[in-house]
Amino acid sequence: MARIFRRHPTTLFWRLFVSYFALILIPVIVAGLLTNLFVVRLIERDAEKAGGIVMNHFAEETDATFRSLESDMVNMLTVSQIKSLLKKDSDPPDSSQRFELMHSLMQQLSLLQSHPFVYSAFLYFAEDNLVISDNTYTGKETFFAEHYPIQSPDLQRFLANFSEKKTMVFTAPYTVDERPPFTEDVIAAHSNITALMSYPFNSSHPDVYLAVNVDRDQLRQQLGIQERWVTDTVLAGSSDSILIRTGSGDAPPVPASAALRAIPEQTLYRYADHGSKALYYQKSSFQEDWHYVSVIDLETLLQPAMWIRACTIVFVLLFALTGGFASYYLSRRLYNPIREIRTGLESHPLAGDMPAPQAGNEFDVIKRFSGMLISRNKELSQMMSGMYPIVHEHFMVKTLTGEYRDSLSIAYYAKEIDFTYDAKAVVTAICIEIQYYSQRVGPLSETSKSFIAAELKENIRRLAPDVIRVCRTQPDQLAVMLFHPQGVPTDPMQIAEAIKRLMLQPHYKASIGVGGTVPSIDRLHLSYDQAVALLKFKSLDAGAEICTEDGAWQERERACGDSFLTVQEVGRILNRCKAREYDSLLQSVYDMLDEGVRAKATAHQMKNVCLDVLNAWIRAAESERNDFNISFYSDLFASIHRSVTWEELRQAFTDIRASLFRTVEPSDRERQFADILCYIHNHYHEELSIEYFAQQMNMSVGHFSRTFKEEVGEKYVEYIAKYRMNEAKRFLLETDMKIDDIAGKVGYWGRNSFIRNFRKYEGTTPAKFRSVHQD
Asked: How far apart are CA 532 and CA 524, in angstroms?
């Protein structure tokens, strides 16, 4: 043992050290990797959300400003002065009126220029050589040459816009020189765009155009987004034109409108040839073909991620250092107790039972030693657990039969055996008597009956597992303790009815006696005695029945009484026997049983009468022959006691009549038994009732059994069992059938019964028999 424990003195310590070190370091490394993998995406998502909020707010404000401008332009074109100026056919204005109208329009145009985007505004009359601005009215050529000097490369393209209907149409950007009228001194140059609207609104050949010149510098101030990572902001118009652009000059180009539509809106889009730049755009609600585009510097955006990556590396290295020291300390703390346990186990009495040394450290050896201790303890626990149901049942039997009557003693015994019950609850005892039908007695062994009783106990307990306890007081009786919890009404008759439904089986008759309810468990024996007494009044009807104190059973008892044969009736039986009127003798018994059915006599009453009749028949038979023995008579009386129903009593007397008053001729007997053996060989897989063959031979069951052994040389049950085992061995060796299928094939109800009988006659299980002989 000492050699085993000293096999690897330090291996366990280093295994613990590595385990702790990995436990500390691996989560840190994984956390660092996850941080580095996902932090960039998280920052991009946050940027998308923040950019979406900023861009949406910016787009809404800008679109609102353009809508306000559009509304002002509509209001400007609908004033009465324009309509008056445009009158030609009917009463046109004279020169003074025309002058006043133009000055009024100049004032209104000056009001329009108060809009934050508007640089200037003018009215362009299509049919007249007239242009009205906020400070002058003049001819078209003079206006565009002196008052609004558009550079010559853009002038013709700009004037081409004054055709057809226009409804808030923006021109392409163009350049305007800022200089005093009628001079050549250019002070500055502006890049403008113009919003055009024609009047009348629905005319394809409008009379006048309102031109509002938008200051692109003001638009740039509006478009600028104050975020470090936004380098450029663009308002892209129709025909892929850039209306306004703010930001650095090194920003990548904005994709065309068709390309923008292929990019998901309000998401980051990376440039293929500008790895550090990304694009973010949103459509305008004012003009469907406008897009608000922002260009994002990813290096600035992801700068926090770089800091996080560097901090993560430092964090991992720091944890690796501190984790090493912590792992060494924890490993030493854990290894020292294990070493002490190892030293203590070297002197343990069970050390000599340890298996041979195996690969492993001290902990592995301790585990094997502990496993052996656990196995020993489990064996003892299983042994004790298997005894608990037996001890509980013994305790219940003692309490029901009255051996335990003191409440304190009962409580003490119950605590010792871990039997739980409510000491304050009232209790009712229910007694169940099981009588197997005669045709089932042969095939059912005592083991099978025990299994049936165990299954019944479990099924009854499941009806109400919290308040029901079940035990077996006698081989043919079960007893139920029914506890009534406080505040929860429990009707014993309902439980009895539920038990009755469980007992509706084809194999046996069940009689249920319900005792009275007692206030405590120490008086439970009184309820049990009453339940047992009520079973005296069971009937001979098949199925299941409940015997209660409702008075019906007592009235039936008083009506029928304990009948016995009179001297005259005995004399008539003797005379019929002397006259060999055996059929008439049997019919008189049938009539007596029919009368008992009509009178609803109890089983106790009818069996007393039947035993008296049997005594008279035996006296009559002994007067003619004296070849019967005590065993024969005992079988006759046992057939009466075994009878459970009216039909079984009839069959019992039929068999008794055949046994007492008729004999089978020796010559016929040999032939009849040969037919019986042939039938057994052909129907071994079916239920072969000894009562059936006894009836065919006009014998009692006992007489037939003795005769069968004399003629065949074996008992009836042994002969059938051996023949079935031979057929089972043939199926095992010649087929691949399952054990369950073979059991049914040779006439057994279940697998367990078949295996038990096979082991009895062959000394091994079917599976081992097949394995050994096939190998």
From this structure: 12
Rounded to 10 deg, the angle between the 603-622 and 582-598 helix axes is 170
Which of 318, 344, 370 marks a domain boundary?
A: 344
Q: What is the pLDDT of residues 320-331, one digit of tens each?
A: 778 777 777 776
Q: Is the dihedral of CA 513, 514, 520, 526 positive or negative?
A: negative
Pair 201, 251 in one domain? yes
Give dist(CA 293, CA 289) in Å, integer: 13
Element (H, E) at 452: helix 446-463
**Residue 240 and residue 279 share a domain:** yes
Q: Are residues 403 and 532 in the same domain?
A: yes
pLDDT for the residue 664: 45
Asked if 164 and 204 sit in the same domain, the reply is yes
Question: DSSP H helical segments within 189-302, as ranges?
Answer: 216-223, 257-262, 298-301
335 and 278 within one domain: no
Using CA atoms, how far apart are residues 208 and 162, in angstroms rounded to an integer? 9
Percentage of residues of the chain with pLDDT beyond 70? 78
- Per-residue pLDDT tens over the stretch 351-405: 555 554 444 566 666 777 777 777 777 777 666 666 778 888 888 888 888 888 8
Residue closest to 648 by CA, chosen among 508, 438, 504, 444: 438
Are both 401 and 261 inside the same structural domain? no
Give the range of the structural domain holding residue 50, as residue numbers without chain letter: 2-67+303-344
Tokens of 489: 């009404």
Closest by Cα among 66, 60, 63 to 195: 66
From the list 69, 79, 70, 74, the residue with the least C-alpha distance to 102 is: 79
pLDDT for the residue 536: 86
Give the tokens for residue 710: 């004399």
Alpha-carbon span 133 to 107, nearest angstrom: 9
Domain boundary among 295, 323, 354: 295
Q: Are residues 233 and 147 in the same domain?
A: yes
Pair 680, 720: CB distance under 8 Å: yes
Task: Tell me, yes or no, whether 711 lies in a domain.
Answer: no
pLDDT digits (tens, 9 = 90+) for 473-498: 888 889 998 888 876 667 888 888 88
Q: Is residue 433, in this structure, part of any structural domain at all?
A: yes
Mean pLDDT over all residues of the chain?
78
Domain count, the chain: 5
Which residues, other chains included, contact 602 with Cβ-Cβ below 8 Å and sequence gap of 6+?
Answer: 536, 537, 538, 539, 540, 553, 556, 557, 560
Q: What is the pLDDT of residue 441?
A: 47
pLDDT tens, position by position, 197-206: 888 888 888 8
Q: What is the pLDDT of residues 657-697, one digit of tens each?
A: 888 876 544 456 778 888 888 888 888 888 888 888 888 88
597 and 514 in a common domain: no
Pairing of strands 544-547, 508-518: parallel
pTM metric for this prediction: 0.43
Q: Residue with structure tokens 């009127």?
A: 581
For the CA atoms of 24, 27, 30, 31, the dihedral, rounded to the nearest 10 degrees, stands at: -110
Say how far apart CA 689 and CA 436 lie, in whole Å: 14
Tell me phi and psi for residue 240, to 5 degrees: 60, 25
